[in-house]
Amino acid sequence: MKFPELGDAISRFRFAQSCLGLTGCVCVCYSVCTPFWLKDKGLWTHWNNSDSDQDSHKDDITFNALEAERVFGVISFLMALSTSALCLVFALCWTSQTVHSYSNTRSLLMAGQALFPTTLLFLTMASTGFFFLLSWSFFTYQHQEEIRQNFSSLGSSYWLGALGWILLLVVETVVFIAEQTVMPDIMSDLEKAVGSWQSSAQFETTKRSLSKGYKPVDHKSSVAPKRFTSVP
């Protein structure tokens, strides 16, 4: 883990989106796990409705909405946990040099795509916010009469949940569009980096082959000198 890198605009956008996503995911997790939605009751509370008991059709609609809001709540909670971990990685462990690693850059150029951490953050955050918005909307639809009668009965879980999906869907979309508009394409920089690496690699290979092919000549003879004697 390293200190956040805020030296350039790309790093600042990445850090801002990571903090935004982490805040939204915390709101979503708090909203799903706590019971303070309406009159100190939440997603996991058994609601008694006398009108729906008298009408079987309304009872089926209420039961289906209750199931849907809980299913989407669980999905958004699990996605919020994974998105929070991803935000921490990009905020604390990712640097501007990570994307310029040789293996990563070469694979990106072969695929014709560039790795943008903010794009991955946007996709995961938007998915999390969308699934929680479904859960939040089903809850609001199911209890719309109670909310109209007593608007002040809505608790902190409801409002923090609303703040969570607004941050993950609306605010994140605006930040992502601004980042895509302001930031230039990094493919040209990656191509230059790969070109310099290939040049240096070829130079090292040529130098190594020359050093292997060069054998110094030993002028000293290894044969011991012969002693010649005269014959009488």
Describe this structure in words.
This protein is mainly α and 232 residues long. Helices cover 71% and strands 0% of the residues. It contains eight helices and no strands. The protein has helices at 9-33, 50-54, 56-93, 102-111, 117-142, 144-149, 156-182, 187-213. Residues 50-58 have low confidence and may be disordered.
Tell me briefly what this model is.
The protein is mainly α. It is built from eight helices and no strands.
Oligomer: single chain
Q: Number of DSSP strands?
A: 0
Number of helices: 8
Low-confidence stretches: 50-58
Main sheet overview: none
Query: What do the pLDDT scores average to?
Result: 75
Relevant terms:
232 residues; mainly alpha; 8 helices; 0% strand; elongated
Fold blueprint:
Blueprint: H1 9-33, H2 50-54, H3 56-93, H4 102-111, H5 117-142, H6 144-149, H7 156-182, H8 187-213
Helix pairs in contact: 1-3, 1-5, 1-7, 3-5, 4-8, 5-7
